Amino acid sequence: MKIPVIGPTYEEMLHPWKIDPEVRKKALEMKTKDPLHPLNLYNITWRNGDDSYNYFVLPTSFTHTKANIVVMFAKNFPSGSHKVGPTYSVLTEKTVDDEVNPLTHRLVWPSTGNYGVGGAFVSSRMNYNSLAILPEEMSQERFDLIHEYGSDVIATPGCESNVKEIYDKTHELRKEDPEHIRILNQFDSFANYRFHEYVTGNTMLELVKDEKIGNMEIAAVHLTVGSAGTIACGDCIKKVFPHAKIIAGEPVQCPTLSLNGYGGHDIQGIGDKHVTWIHNVMNTDGVVLIDDMDSKWLLKLFTSEEGKAYLKQHMDEDTVEFISDKLGISGCANIIGAIKTAKYYNLQEGENVLTVATDSIDRYHSVMNAFPTLTPEDCQSIYQRIVYYQDHSLMYEGDRDNKLRWHNLKYYTWVEQQGKTVEALDAMKSQDFWNEQANLVETYNKKIVAYREKHKAEINAVLEI
User: Fold this and answer.
1) Which residues contact residue 156 at a Cβ distance below 8 angstroms, ignoring those fewer than 6 apart?
2) Does 240 lie in the same domain as 384?
């Protein structure tokens, strides 16, 4: 019998030292020895094998802000992006709830990139057959990785913001084969929310305290929103620091939250032209707009030899080299948004703004190769315009009326198009609803442990332990 392979609990993803020592030791060996081995499910965490954090603090001499800009980077996750965490959580919850099984179902992962890559990774590791769907204009590296991880892929028309076309394709597939097709949608799955609320949020809280960064508090979090999974960390952070500002970033070319706008853009992974079901907009304090070209030029500055040579004027050589392979386009967008956030709220020395780099340059060589070689003058212009003289414009605060506007935008996608109810939508206005979703982490921790114990012999045979 083909048994799904279940890996860590939410608690073990947050605190990997709680994994069985033998399992963790072998999982860490497989990280380099065999990155496609199922044991790598146990490497889904923001921490390294020695329990240190994957992060860096941008020097204030570079950011030209008084506050610390703290970046947690996801390059060291299996599949090279933290999106593997939500995909694992979504599939694991559905497995322990008996909603999917590998003998009957084919999994479909609607995505604008990294979620599809993560879905391909976890599906094959967990013994499922899968199919990813993403827009045709996403980077070639994404399509290549999906195939490498053992999944098929369908390219739909358009770019990052063409999500409706993805939804339409999922409906078509389900209609053709309702018995076997199962859609695992990051945009409405609360397992996505739970991974980031619990794992990412608590990691941020522990990071600033353990590493004694600034005043060891969190003044603000800036995160660009795609599925709006990562920004769920804000719900966790506000339980400890109620006055922390949770700021969403979106492309100026597709200002959905800020201006009810639309349009195409190339900050791959964000700005999906709708308000997602799992975005707790009532707990979001503002939205800031970021230009996709600024994000790409900044990535070019961080990753090209010419750019790195220039940056060594503003930070030490080791820091420049360390950062150079940790960022992708959305990571650079997050840095820009974090700087704007720090300046907008006039944050002072010792205060911390947290953000993440969802993936890294290995997703974007094909994009960067289309850019011209930078001259020293280009480097200076990019840095001064995008970083040093960055201002706090294009920020839209989340007052009561704006939060209601953001909330009401969910109606058109989710009630009219995707079959949700008005009653379910209205329930999301209360923080109690979101607390109930977060509290299910403990329930699923117990279910995962029980499942692993029930199928221990079969799972261990696959994991070779």
Assistant:
1) 133, 134, 135, 136, 162, 165, 166, 168, 169
2) yes
